[in-house]
Specification:
single chain; seven-stranded parallel β-sheet; elongated
Length: 412
């Protein structure tokens, strides 16, 4: 099959789940092209991006943020490419039909033009797989104007059916739900949110994001004599990840068990405030923010750690977690995990078996479960094995990619 992926950024270290799908499809003999708005962080490129020459398969529709420059460049695109498929280009500029008021996406009209240009004179695709709702909407609009051909599959991840419709309006996906062919969601919670927005219940399938388990070697976790208990979080430094609550819980536990270390892998808008919190709690020697790491570096940090924390919360603006794939990564490595009763997270953790789930923003509950894990290193191995078995059964990317191909074939 010929498959097009429509995404926001590519490549990006925080969305390896998309990369895993793309690589899996290529390995199964399918031809994949990638259409993105902009590149991600090119300083941290996954080895598979180079191994499969994915940048040569990627086409960008970069749109200037400045309105004047956006319009000026748009004229340049029309002049430079207008001879290819003039009717398609003109349909992309149908202001009455594709105005930003209708779709609550500022610059939609000019963005359709920018997104159309890389597609000109491309052969038809069998499947157009769009990750995140706004790109699914763009996918069906591009198909409606004739810029791309193929069945449109949209994957929802959480933000796109929670926060995004509140930022715009609940009817944002009306066109997507009318014209899309199939939808997938990473958790049942995400699927239910999409259905509440109008997604046809019979057209949405729960399909978790998966892991290449061959890259996550299981090890039985134990604590060496005199070794500090090493705690790890991997997350963007944004409010919904709840990292401040994990830091405060670590501070409470460290008061009684000073021989511990906590490393936070990631970056984001809250880095400075979190570093200030660490300093205020006198944790600078115990808690470190490491910034972004490659997938290989993250796996090595998992191998050096004993306990994983992801203390996700609902942000003040209503933003929420989706699947929390890092929880499955940590369990695959054999780490006991500590997280929250938040959105789709309970789908991906065996509470009381592979880890513990506590209420959102409950620092005392986080600290109590963390203290239990610190005090009882003898349970780590059993919990880690339960987590590994659970992930093998439910999140193996090879099995999930086989299932993805079956889903494609259902509508092809």
């Amino acid at each position: 099959m010929r498959i097009a992926f429509i995404v926001g950024k590519f490549p990006t270290v925080s969305e390896t789940f998309i990369l895993n799908q793309i690589v899996g499809l290529i390995e199964r003999g399918h031809e994949v092209d990638i259409y993105a708005d902009v590149p991600g962080d090119t300083n941290k490129i996954h080895a598979d991006v180079e191994k499969y020459n994915l940048l040569q398969r990627t086409y960008y529709a970069s749109t200037p943020s400045n309105r004047f420059l956006r319009i000026l460049k748009g004229f340049g695109l029309l002049l430079g490419h207008g001879y290819k498929e003039p009717a398609v280009l003109m349909r992309s500029l149908n202001f009455s039909k594709y105005n930003h008021t209708k779709y609550c996406d500022q610059g939609t009209v000019i963005r359709l033009l920018y997104s159309t240009v890389p597609l000109l004179q491309k052969p038809a695709y069998d499947i157009i797989h769009c990750h995140f709702g706004p790109y699914g909407l763009r996918g069906v609009l591009l198909r409606e104007i004739g810029a791309i051909k193929g069945k449109v599959v949209t994957t929802f991840h959480g933000f796109d059916v929670g926060m995004y419709p509140r930022q715009t309006h609940p009817g944002i996906y009306q066109k997507l739900f009318q014209l899309g062919d199939l939808y997938t969601a990473n958790t049942q919670f995400t699927a239910n949110q999409a259905i509440a927005l109008g997604c046809p219940e019979g057209k949405i399938i729960k399909l978790p994001m998966g892991l290449d388990l061959s890259k996550y070697a299981f090890r039985s976790i134990s604590l060496g004599n005199g070794e500090p208990v090493k705690i790890i979080t991997v997350a963007r430094l944004v409010e919904k990840k709840g990292i401040e609550y994990a830091i405060k819980a670590v501070a409470k536990v460290a008061a009684n068990y000073p021989n511990l270390e906590y490393c936070i892998v990631g970056d984001g808008e809250l880095r400075q405030s979190l570093e200030s919190l660490i300093a205020q709690l006198n944790l600078s020697e115990k808690v470190k923010i490491l910034g972004w790491k490659t997938q290989e570096e993250v796996r090595q940090l998992y191998a050096e750690s004993h306990i994983f924390i992801l203390s996700s919360v609902t942000s003040a603006s209503g933003d929420r977690e989706g699947q929390g794939l890092v929880l499955q990564e940590a369990q695959a490595r054999g780490l006991p995990v500590l997280s929250t009763l938040h959105n789709g997270i309970p789908d991906g953790v065996l509470d009381g078996e592979s880890g513990f789930l506590v209420p959102e923003k409950d620092i005392d509950a986080l600290a109590a479960k963390l203290s239990y894990l610190v005090e009882h290193p003898q349970v780590w191995s059993k919990m880690g094995q339960a987590g590994r078995t659970f992930v093998e059964k439910n999140y193996d990317i090879n099995r999930l990619n086989d299932w993805l191909v079956e889903i494609y074939q259902q509508i092809h």
